[in-house]
Design goal:
Elements lengths: L2 H4 L16 H22 L20 H22 L7 H19 L3 H28 L5
Amino acid sequence: MIDGIFTPSGPHDDEETVRPGPLWRHTSWVIGITLFGVGAGWAISQFRIGSGEYGLPAAAPGPVWPYLIFWTMTSLAAAAALRAVAARVPVYAPGEITAALTALGTRLSLGWRPEPPLLGAMAVALLTAVAMWCALALRSASRGGRGG
């Protein structure tokens, strides 16, 4: 029973596998990864990281909901793109990529409260990284077993 979990034939999220399935499973995955990434970013923003001179400040005072909603929408788009590609070709660690980039963007936004142009640039950077990750997966899948 445990043998199937830890052997190469068992399920591993970071393994490059195709993730087919019904739409509700893909939707649940996208929502779960998004909530985890935004929640983790919010949670770690409650604490200062590093020294007062050089570290990341704790969450700045003021309303957090606009930033949380912004990163939730951005992360939904990123997770949906990665999951759509992962349903067709093997993608390495789509959940970790989405959650880590979302948590980082949320953490930085809550610490410094950037203006809308900079916030938009952060979202473009996240979506560009996801698009590149998807493109690499699609390219390697289209090359098949060919070398180099």
